[in-house]
């Protein structure tokens, strides 16, 4: 690593530390539209476990609730941790 890369990294870290110290107001999370939760990717928001295009029917002997979201159909947003807001200094969340 040359000195230019070191200095560039140092500048980025210094700017981020300054941004954190300013405590700017949080911004709305764009990943979940400030809801704090997103549709479960495994069940498509239905709350039931889905294989292919077939929705499994519920049988008394077998529970088919989605094991990822526990049948709720949604999960906490990973970008805002369920709050609906992100710290401004974090910038925009990465694309999905």
UniProtKB/TrEMBL annotation:
InterPro entries: HSP_DnaJ_Cys-rich_dom_sf (IPR036410). This is Uncharacterized protein. It comes from the Eukaryota.
């Amino acid at each position: 690593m040359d000195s230019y890369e070191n200095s560039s990294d140092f500048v980025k870290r210094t700017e981020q530390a300054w941004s954190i110290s300013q405590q700017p107001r949080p911004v709305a999370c764009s990943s979940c539209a400030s809801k704090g939760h997103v549709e479960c990717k495994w069940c498509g928001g239905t709350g039931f476990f889905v294989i292919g295009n077939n929705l499994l029917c519920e049988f008394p002997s077998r529970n088919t609730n989605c094991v990822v979201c526990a049948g709720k159909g949604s999960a906490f947003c990973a970008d805002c941790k369920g709050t609906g807001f992100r710290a401004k200094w974090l910038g925009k969340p990465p694309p999905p």
